[in-house]
């Protein structure tokens, strides 16, 4: 059985996907700007939903006077902010995302500096968020005309 994949640009409004990947550190502060500056404006202009796909990771934190930051709280906050636009989201603990480098001498890893895992994690989460989007496209039978990649902490400023 084969699935026919179509793009929406053939006589219809173009489809936009937003892929959000990286360390979650803003408690959905940036989400509000994504919704107001990108999603709502796209929907007003083109009349169709913007689909959002997220792969993020958190470090559990329990600070006095601050809401608990853990996977469940972050996922609930993302669902509350992006609403029907959120088509797929995975939240992992930072320890689950960090890469190990078996067989590589510690001296070689040390030369890369302390930010090696940060870079690897960023690349890995972009790939994993893209896989969530890909699986959704295959299940729905269409492709996106535009894909915008954002970090969870990227606030959108100015006029768009």
Task: Enumerate the spans where pLDDT stays under 50 for 5 or more consecutive residues.
Answer: none
**Portion of residues within helices:** 40-55%
Shape: globular
Strand content: 15-25%
- What Rg is obtained from the alpha carbons, in whole angstroms? 18 Å
Q: Give the domain tally.
A: 1
Q: What would the average pLDDT be, to the nearest integer?
A: 84
Number of helices: 5
Largest sheet: 4 strands, parallel
Tell me what you see in this structure:
The protein has 160 residues and is α/β, with parallel strands linked by helices. The protein has one domain (15-150). The protein is 41% helix and 21% strand. The chain has helices at 29-46, 71-82, 94-97, 106-111, 116-140, and strands spanning 6-7, 16-23, 51-58, 86-93, 142-143, 146-150. The strands form 2 sheets. It has a 4-stranded parallel β-sheet. A two-stranded parallel sheet has the order 1-5. Strand 3 (51-58), helix 2 and strand 4 form a beta-alpha-beta unit. The longest helix has 25 residues, at 116-140.
Question: What is the strand and helix layout of this fold?
Answer:
Blueprint: E1 6-7, E2 16-23, H1 29-46, E3 51-58, H2 71-82, E4 86-93, H3 94-97, H4 106-111, H5 116-140, E5 142-143, E6 146-150
Parallel strand pairs: 1-5, 2-3, 2-6, 3-4
